[in-house]
Amino acid sequence: MITLYGIKACDTCRRARKALEHKGLPFQVHDLRKDGLSTERLEHLLEHVPVMTLLNKRSTTWRALDDADKAKLDAHSARELMLANPTLIKRPLLDTGEDIRVGYRDGDYDDLDG
Q1: Helix-strand-coil split of the chain, %, nearest 5
Q2: What's the mean pLDDT when you consider all of the chain?
Q3: Nearest CA-CA partner of 6 in 90, 79, 99, 77
């Protein structure tokens, strides 16, 4: 089953969801703000995506973090920050079961089969 990770208020997440619906692909939505993020799910994502690629340094959540937390950033602290603040994860994330795609631009899902 395809899983689309995102947040409800994100315009790009909505466009990604519509693209999947348009292709008729079955998928489930995991709202990072509402559903949170378990250690197991994060580790699954990190098996496919480097930790610093997954961390969204352009997010409102990142800008609101304490400067000390940002200054001491490494792979371990990035994991901890994402677990504590799941909206730090770049979105949308599409887990196809075979790979994980970070972000969305029109046409990114054209190669997916339904």
Answers
A1: 45, 15, 40
A2: 95
A3: 90
CB 7 within 8 A of CB 33: yes
**pLDDT at residue 114 tops 70:** no
Q: How far apart are CA 40 and CA 9, in angstroms?
A: 25
Q: Of 60, 10, 66, 8, which Cα lies nearest the Cα of 34?
A: 8
Q: Which CATH superfamily is domain 2-102 in?
A: Glutaredoxin (3.40.30.10)
> From the CB of residue 53, how many other CB atoms can be counted at a distance below 10 Å?
12
| Residue 61 backbone dihedrals phi, psi, to 5 degrees | -60, -45
| All structural domains of the chain with their residue ranges | 2-102
Across 77-93, average pLDDT:
96
Q: What is the pLDDT of residues 16-62, one digit of tens each?
A: 999 999 999 999 999 999 999 999 999 999 999 999 999 999 999 99
List Cα–Cα distances, 94 to 5, 14, 47, in angstroms: 6, 13, 14
- Residues acting as catalytic residues: 10
